Structure formats: C-alpha cells, structure tokens
Amino acid sequence: MQSTSTPLETIDRPFITWQRIIDWAQEHYRCRTFSKDERIPARPGLLYLVQKGSVRLVGSAQVSAAAAKSKSADKTTEEAFLGFVGAGQPFELVAQSPFTLQAYAHTDQTHVVWMYWHDLDNWPHFRREILDAFRYQHQRKLLWLSTLGQRRTIDRLLGFLTLLIEEFGEPYVGDGEPDVVRGYRLPWTLTHAQIGSAIGSTRVTVTRLMGKLRSKGLINTEDDNLICLPAKSNPQKTKNQKQDLEDSLEDSLEDSLEDSLEDSLEDSLEDSLEDSLEESA
Fold first, then answer.
1. Whole-Å CA distances, 201 to 81, 120, 192
2. Are 31 and 113 in contact (CB under 8 A)?
3. Helix-helix angle 203-215:153-168, to 10 degrees
C-alpha cells in the first residue's frame, strides 16, 4: 500500500509560485496559525489552503426524527467527522440550512491561508492545480460513501481506516530493521468517538471492533496510539469455513442488537421526558 495523497506543495511546480502566494497572503493579512482543536473561522465563498499541519472537517445537522416526533425534544446536535485536509491541500465550506460544516486545526501550529476565488486569477497554473485537487477530493468522497454503505459496522470501520491511511498514511519501520517498511500509519491521532461519528456507530462499539481487527492482524497501533495498516495484511486464518461463518453471524447479530437497543433506549427516554413535561405543565 502506498499513500495516494498528492499535496500541492509536492507537485512539480516552481517553488517560487508557492512562495509568492505565501508572501501575498502575509501582505494582505490572509494567513493565520491555529492551535490544536482551535476552530478555524471559515465562511462560505472563500478558498482555504493548508500550508502546514492538518485540518479536521466536521458536520452537524439540525435534523432529528426525535424533534419531529416531540416538540419538547432536545435540539442538540452531534458533530460528525468528515475527514482531514492535509498540508498543501485546499478546502472550502458550504452553508445550507439545516446543515453546518466547520473546520478545526487537528494538530498544533496549523497554518492556513485564505483568499477569494478571483484571487487565483493571479496564478492561472495554480488555479488549475486547485481544481485538480478538488476533483481528487470528490473522487475520494465517492469511495468514502461506498464504504459507509456497508451493512456490517466492522466492514465500515475497516474501509474507513483503509481510505484514511491510503490518502494520508506514512510508512513506518521496525527498530531492528530500519530498511524494511512494516506498514503505513495515520500521522495523527483519531479518537474512537470521532471514528464512531464518521461511520455511524458508537465509541464503545468502535473500541470493541478495533480489538477484533487487531486480533485478526488487519490493523495495529504504534507509538502514541497511531493507527496502522500492515504492509502485508496477514489476518490470522480461522480453522475452517464454519468458524468464518460464525464470526460473520456474530458481527451481524451484534450490529442488529446494538441498533435495536439504541432505538429502544432513545424512544423510552424520549417518551419518559415528554410525559414528565406534560405532567409538570
């Protein structure tokens, strides 16, 4: 497996072009450095370039089946992890009620440059590269959607991690064999809660399924809990096809039970809250 990310700063382009853009941004006060987890005050209509570090995109929606069923339901929203934007890559945010997109610095010292689209007229070649980068991001999102369409949560989890590490992964080597690439790892940490929000699951379920993937040799963790994919996936072979079938049925049953319990619990809490409010009124 090799990283397929093609950051703009590594594209074969004269270095002076990128340096001119940085100088222009500093001259027009169009750049800023953000701390880890600091929200980037992005707004629609502007183009953003990540010069250094990484940006985490999240989304939320004021759409709730519970809110539609009960007027008294809490309208709090949960943020869903939508992906990373690495160094040298562009991003923009769209606004369409009731959906909201936001950007956060995922690492410390994340440097972001912003401009209007017409500002790219000063650098026609760079404008083409920006459009190519957005086309590449669009293609990756289609793969992301196909992964999220998987029925089993463990398949969504593995597909999600694979796509992330394919795009942003860095090779890592063993201490005893510095010339041998053991696999590829995500260069940034990602919490189980963030992973769960991306694949439509819970933190507890993600933690359990991560353990299963590790036991099968499909993933491992290195250093500061960085998620890794082995260079050659060597999942532990089960004794026979019967064992494989049992594992598959077990995962499917767990997913079904989990969804059923979550729905039942939400309905029960909602009805209880609604009854209590009606009695107090």
1. 12, 40, 10
2. yes
3. 80
Q: Taking the chain (281 residues) in consecutive chunks of 10 residues, what is each chunk's mean pLDDT? A: 45 62 91 95 89 93 60 62 92 83 94 94 90 93 91 94 92 77 89 93 94 92 86 52 52 58 60 63 58
Q: How far is Cα 23 from Cα 95, in angstroms, rounded to an integer?
A: 30
Cα(197)–Cα(209) distance, integer angstroms: 14
Residue 182 DSSP symbol: E
Q: Are 6 and 171 contacting, i.e. CB atoms less than 8 angstroms apart?
A: no
Q: Where are the alpha helices (DSSP H) in 44-175?
A: 65-69, 124-148, 153-168
Secondary structure of residue 98 in the 3-state scheme: coil
Q: Whose CA is closest to 90, among 134, 35, 32?
A: 134
Q: What is the pLDDT of residue 272?
A: 66
d(CA 201, CA 165): 20
Q: CB-based contacts of 49: which residues, under 8 Å, 6+ apart?
A: 8, 21, 88, 89, 90, 112, 113, 114, 115
Whether 98 contacts 62, CB under 8 Å: yes
Q: Which amino acid is residue 130, in one-letter code?
A: I
Tokens (6 digits) for 35:
């701390």
Asked if 186 and 164 count as a contact pair (C-beta separation under 8 A), the reply is yes
Instruction: Evaluate whether 81 touches 194 at the Cβ level (below 8 Å).
Output: yes
Whether 85 and 50 have beta carbons less than 8 Å apart is answered as: yes
Distance CA 170, CA 20 (A): 29
Task: Identify the CA nearest to 7 among candidates 159, 138, 108, 136.
Answer: 136
